[in-house]
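[Discussion] Sanity-checking designs against the backbone

I'm trying to build intuition for which residues belong where. Below is a structure token string of 291 positions. I'd appreciate it if someone posts a full sequence so I can compare it with mine line by line.
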């Protein structure tokens, strides 16, 4: 197996950098480093956006930031509670860098991510996950706001329960670069496990109205607003197809195959996540019918 090579930071706008994750599911080949991260360099410091999968991943992200600027990292923002965005926080906190999360994302992490961490250790091994621990964010927030901690205003947007109960997006107004976090993936099947489809579609419509020039998605290469339209089509078609299967009396065991969506068959994780998404929505719709 080839040795993993950490990706370099790519400047996607003046002073705004993306560190792209690897495609595919979390495994030894990619060391679980599948989620995108990034950072914004201001006049007085740096805002890190998402912290990676492990302590080692967090260290690598900090080294990447140091390769670009010697300004101090003032704050690390975790955009949502998925395992490939969270656990590098240990490396940041070890250096006295506070970690910020939306309160509902922090609550979701606290409720389930001890198990996330066990799964990562089983998948990637104890050595790769050495130093990786659960944590409580140093700072929490509830509503959309402007951060002014790096001498450069940065906007945080919370649209309510969407892709997750506390998922947020980050906009650098100076460049129009948007970090979409869990709200948007590029050419990758989004995971609906934590999502509220109605709220998610509302949030995607709100993203579409922001003055963006470049979008850094949660997974996949940098993109444009066209990716929002593609994800809206996926979520809409998935929901409609699952509702159709429920009306037809389809057995749950038949749902994964019956919920094929050919338009998206070329997207990363289609074979696994589309089937999982269909089953998840089917069970929810069944439950809602009974209530």
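Best answer:
Here's mine. Compare freely.
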């Amino acid at each position: 197996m080839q040795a993993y090579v950490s990706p370099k930071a790519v400047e996607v706008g003046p002073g705004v950098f993306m560190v792209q994750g690897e495609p595919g599911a979390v495994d030894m080949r990619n060391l679980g480093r599948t989620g995108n991260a990034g950072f914004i360099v201001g006049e007085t410091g740096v805002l890190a956006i998402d912290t990676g999968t492990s302590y080692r991943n967090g260290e690598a992200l900090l080294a990447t930031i140091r390769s670009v600027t010697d300004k101090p990292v003032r704050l690390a923002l975790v955009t949502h509670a998925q395992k490939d965005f969270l656990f590098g926080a240990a490396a940041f906190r070890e250096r006295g860098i506070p970690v910020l999360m939306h309160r509902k994302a922090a609550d979701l992490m606290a409720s389930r991510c001890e198990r996330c961490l066990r799964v990562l250790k089983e998948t990637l091994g104890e050595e790769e996950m050495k130093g990786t621990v659960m944590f409580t964010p140093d700072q929490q927030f509830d509503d959309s706001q402007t951060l002014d901690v790096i001498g450069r205003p940065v906007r945080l947007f919370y649209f309510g329960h969407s892709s997750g109960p506390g998922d947020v997006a980050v906009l650098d107004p100076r460049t129009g670069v948007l970090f979409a976090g869990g709200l948007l993936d590029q050419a990758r099947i989004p995971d609906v496990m934590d999502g509220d489809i109605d709220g998610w579609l509302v949030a995607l419509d709100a993203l579409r109205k922001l003055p963006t020039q470049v979008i850094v998605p949660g997974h996949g290469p940098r993109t444009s607003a066209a990716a929002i339209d593609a994800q809206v089509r996926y979520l809409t078609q998935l929901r409609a197809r699952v509702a159709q299967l429920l009306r037809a009396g389809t057995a749950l065991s038949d749902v994964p195959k019956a919920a094929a969506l050919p338009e998206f068959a070329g997207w990363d994780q289609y074979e696994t996540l589309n089937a999982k998404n269909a089953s998840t929505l089917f069970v929810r719709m069944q439950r809602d019918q009974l209530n």
